[in-house]
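Record minuted for everyone:
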Amino acid sequence: MGMYDVINGDQVKMFTVCYPVLQEDGNIEFCCSGGELKEYGDGAEVPWKRNYYNIGRNFDIVDMFSDDYDFDAGTEAILIHQIRNGKVLASVPYDEHNGIFEFDAYTSYGIKFKSINKAILADYKEKILYLQKLRTPSNKMTSELNKYYREHGKEKDATKKIEEMAQKIKEQRKKDYDEFILPVHEKMREYLGEDFLSDKFDDEQKLGIYVDALVGRDINFEKFVVYDERLKFIAFATEMVKLYEKVNLKHYFERFEINEDEQEEFKIDVEMIKAKLDTVKKMKFKKEQFVVNALQDLENKRFEKAYKKYNVIPFED
């Protein structure tokens, strides 16, 4: 199911939370989750902007499967979460909605509708239900594999048979996708634009992600040798400093509607991270301070390239 937030009792994955992940080779990738498991009722302010995205203060979220209705219901099960001036105004059943969308409308996953009306929503939902109920040849083959495993899995010659069946399922799934699923996806995409937050982040967005990830970090130096947080902090903070010096801050603040008070706070946060970076770089550890798992990672040279890239020495002899 993954992470999500809740608006008036219904799940949405609109307010994406992104964070950096250090790879073993020293490169940094960015991952995102669908929310923070927070609940928002009428009048509550939603995270319509973060330091790396800006949806806008006014928009609608189209919830195709409100928990208040039967799953198979038609458009009467669709709920419109209205966000006005950054706050939840109301969650209105579509049949009680006037059908006029004054602002951008998004799916509960943050993908914008190019245009929207009752006919479009009815067809869009029909296709979702079709895909969720679809039983393809590969589904049937998977059931047969599971049955075979339950009945013969412990037999001497079962492994080869199971591997053969699994390979056939893999090949059939590709055929099923091309024949049954892709055409429906393509039709659904005709109604939709782009996700408001692309997974290809630019420098301004990366800066915001680093700052958000580092500011809330509980920098307990004793944990660095356990979870390798020292290396991660140095890597993330080093890249943040580079971006902070590179981007046009005026444009960045305007793009994400960061007001003067927030700008001052942002700059203070950056300076605090810089100061912590200097402190962490000077830290030294002894081998005996490392827990078993951390030592095993070092022995297996998991992050050897990362240590070299950021000029970090795990411990002193």
Notes: The chain has a mean pLDDT of 88. The CA atoms of residues 9 and 67 lie 8 Å apart.
